[in-house]
Write a structure and sequence with these properties.
The structure is a single chain. By secondary structure, the chain is of the alpha+beta class. It has a single domain, classed as Aminopeptidase (3-Layer(aba) Sandwich). About 30% of the residues lie in helices and about 30% in strands. It has seven helices and eight strands; from the N terminus they run ββααααβββαβαββα. An eight-stranded mixed beta sheet has the order 1-2-3-4-5-6-8-7, with helices on both faces. A hairpin with a 3-residue loop joins strand 1 and strand 2. Helix 1 crosses helix 3. The radius of gyration is 16 Å and the shape is globular. The chain starts with 9 loop residues before the first strand and ends in a 15-residue tail after the last helix. The model has no long low-confidence stretch (mean pLDDT about 90).
């Protein structure tokens, strides 16, 4: 993706500072991952039971190169003063249209506080206003109820169920597809409660 102006390294929401990860975030990332394995591993295989400090370090080393070549933009979600780490959000799979995939995760002690929803709304707005994306997709396993709830609360529009869209731990998963476009902001986010809902997972 070619951009005429540099992408800002951070932005703020009502409660949080959302900034590009630094190589110095390895300890907070490592500890957050370790305490979240039981809840996160099923749908995000990177957060596995053998996760070590070097896993955090190696991934953080990829942030700046990916940012530079425009393949992915990954952010940490921090308290406004930068002292508490809550999780992460990112955009990747960016193509020429331009469309991107948006993802998020929250460490277990910080769940249930609307953090992922607030970060998703902020990042989606950032993507349309600062990156010029015309469409943002949120894709999750039909079994991932927590992620589905975040997508709905953030104002993403449900578009359908894609068969065998994901492969997690060697198992095929159907996926729910949601999207956000710049026009959605003109209507206001989150959406009115009459938004169509996906079918119950089976």
């Amino acid at each position: 993706m070619n951009l005429t102006t540099p992408i800002p390294l951070s932005f703020e929401t009502e409660r949080f500072l959302i900034r590009r990860y630094s190589i110095f975030d390895e300890k907070v990332l490592f500890h957050a991952a370790r305490e979240s394995i039981a809840e996160v591993f099923e749908f995000l295989p990177w957060c596995h039971p053998d996760y070590q400090m070097n896993d955090a370090s190696e991934w953080l080393d990829s942030i700046q190169p990916n940012w530079k070549n425009g393949s992915a933009y990954s952010f940490g979600i921090f308290s406004k003063d930068g002292t508490e780490f809550h999780g992460g959000c990112s955009v990747n799979q960016i193509d020429e249209h331009p469309i991107a995939n948006l993802g998020y995760w929250i460490k277990t002690p910080s769940t249930g506080k609307g953090i992922a929803t607030e970060a998703t709304i902020g990042l989606a707005r950032f993507c349309t206003e600062k990156m010029g994306l015309q469409r943002i997709e949120i894709v999750m396993s039909v079994q991932n109820g927590a992620s589905k709830a975040v997508a709905e609360a953030s104002g993403a529009q449900f578009e359908g169920r894609a068969r065998n869209r994901l492969l997690l731990h060697g198992k095929r998963h159907d996926a729910f597809i949601y999207s956000i476009t710049p026009a959605d902001y003109k209507q206001g986010l989150p959406p009115k409660p009459d938004q169509p809902k996906p079918p119950t997972a089976t």
